[in-house]
Amino acid sequence: MLKPRLSVLLFILGLACCCTGTTAAAQVAAGDWPNFGRDGSEQHYSPLTGIAVSNVEKLGLAWYFDLEPGFTVSAPVKGGDKLFTTTGHSHIRAFDAASGKLLWEFNAGVRDIAQSPLHMSWGNKGIAWWNDRVFLATTDGRVIALDDKTGQPLWHTRQFELSELRNSNGAPRVFDGKVIVGHGGADISPLRGYVTAYDALTGKQLWRFYSVPGDPSVPAANEAEKIMRATWKGDWYGKGGGGTAWNAFSYDAELNLVYLGIGNGFPYNQQLRSPGGGDNLFLASVVAVNADTGDYVWHYQVCPGEQWDCTASQDMTIATVPIDGKPRKVLMQAPKNGFFYVLDAATGEFISAEKFARVSWAERIDAKTGRPVENPGIRYQDKPGLFELWPGPQGAHSWLPQAYSERTGLVYIPVMDVGALIGAAPPDATGFTAGMGLTLIADAELPGSRRSFLKAWDPVSQRAAWSIELPGDWPGGVLATAGDLVFQGRIDGYLVAYDARSGEQVWSYKTDAPVVAPPISYSIKDKQYISVLTGNGSQGGGILATGNAAYRTDYQLPRRLLTFAIGGAAEVPAFAPPPLVPPDDPDFAPDEERVQAGAMAFATNACIVCHGTNAIGGGSAPDLRFSPAILNPDLFKAVVIDGSYKMQGMPASPTLPESVLEDIRHYLRLRAMQAPAEIATMSQPPPGTGE
Ligand code: HEC
């Protein structure tokens, strides 16, 4: 008797799962924003029309919440009647989405647990919501589900061990009841990158997809590994690897595919990584896998045999666009390498690619083969000296997302023109990138460099419909709405709305800090809201921030969650940025050798990642040129070696020799001496904004 009953029950449960599962994933409620890019298509597009070009001038602040300093660059998510944010190292907050009332907080305790600067050098890029749960992935490798009513953990698991040289800061996605997470670390060691899917209800691992091959002495585990192995050549195992998917995942319910955006190789120099050459799959590739099994379906590689920190980890927009007059479901990506790719979403077939930024590494993508036609001499191994590389490792587009509007058919891309100098490392080289087999000046002083744009890209004609130059070189993530508006923050503190059709600026709001995080839109009881976190941090706020040096982006600026609505009339307290004054150090006499050693140590000991290139603090951490601690050797040691500010996000470096510490301090005193002349040239607001 039991058996038939049970199967009836299972049948009913199965049906229920089917309905809530697939339809919920395919059709997110119009007023919700449950995933980083809203739904699996990663369009960063809201179908709401309450805020439109016709009434946007009445858009005002509805409510705000003051945040702590540090990393505040993630997109909020909204599910049901609540808005959720993550800041710093997985500090989660839940708000009443209409009133802004704080409901609960959950701090994942990363700073307590973290064992290396690796776990603290990047802040969280986002979280996900599904079925009354909030999902987070901590930099130290934990994946956690919280009850959205209480903030209490429902389950937690690990995607990697604390001791591994991996870190996870991208937004987890939840597609059809599966939590998809990835991680980074391919700039540091030849690890074997992977993407993992967990059951959102239980935390049980469903599948894991490896993005580079494993031990060649054992049989290949699956079809994907066979494909990969054929493209790694020579004595590579243990020396080469990478391929971490640290940012982007998309999903199409109809095709039942999850798309993985795979990153660069380690070491960058292919002669060291895979001495016999080869494409080195799946580095710098988009890979489509079966959503249920994680089995390989198709791939497309944007940089075969990559060796320039080329990644395909930028967001992948799924949409149906007219190709040769017929509607076709495509995947659109603007990866670091400066080409805008349109691929068939079902098969991966190459449709088209054109340059959307300044590019020197390749002339074009061959339409027949789908492979790049590289410019001669771009592979540095046999070439003496340094030469220009466009885009540099910052990329023509990084993780701050593009948006797509089905109404205009345009993709709105935050674009950078930042060039680098690159060359093979001489055999006796030391320094930041020498271990990678190359010399790379990532953010070089080059004419025409350190520029940024918002480009409205027509994926059919492969041309910009309009383009706007932005201040600084770290352009914010983009939101598009069915009100024909495009929202984007700027490094000079403005949140700006443009007419999606023409690029005309139709609204702006001055915040007290840079705005780089992608805004989102949601509704409660038919009222539409726009929500964004302010404050700089992460990549553009630490390393590679020199192009923003003309703007105040620093750690001292107040960070907030700002939520706007039509007729909103809330006001934040008046704020005057504290002056930037270096500590008084009249007796300092710089010693050239110690300055050089200190500058090198500042880079190789990861200080540069948070405190900025040339020690110009971009907002991830204090600007040390203005810190009294650089004149106080005891305090400096307590902070840097003993980790007295660890719980504020400053990692301890217990193995740093005191002589090296003193070199760093010496270098910082020189930078403090140079600072007044540098800040005299700062412009705020930038010329030409009309504000
Ligand atoms: C993971 C990011 C990160 C890294 C890497 C990092 N710092 Fe920090 N550092 C911070 C943060 C965040 C603070 C501010 C903590 C606070 O709010 O008190 C800080 C504070 C400091 C301070 C105190 C500044 C002041 O005025 O109070 C000094 C000095 C300092 N760091 C030096 C260094 C040096 C030297 C290195 C490299 C060995 C380094 N830091 C690496 C994030 C970092």
CATH H level of the largest domain: which superfamily?
Quinoprotein alcohol dehydrogenase-like superfamily
Q: What's the end-to-end separation, in Å?
A: 77 Å
Task: Compute the number of helices.
Answer: 8
If you consult CATH, what is the topology of the largest domain? Methanol Dehydrogenase, Chain A
The CATH C-level name of the largest domain is Mainly Beta
Mean pLDDT figure: 92
| CATH architecture annotation name of the largest domain | 8 Propeller
| Topology, number of strands | 40
Q: Could you tell me the radius of gyration in angstroms?
A: 24 Å
The percentage of residues in β strands lies in 25-35%
Q: What structural class is derived from the secondary structure elements?
A: alpha+beta
Query: What kind of sheet is the major sheet?
Result: 5 strands, mixed
Helix content: 10-25%
Q: What's the number of domains? A: 4
Sequence stretches where pLDDT stays below 50 over 5 or more residues: 1-25, 685-691
Strand order of the largest sheet: 1-34-35-36-37
Global geometry: globular
The set of bound ligands, ions and cofactors reads: heme C
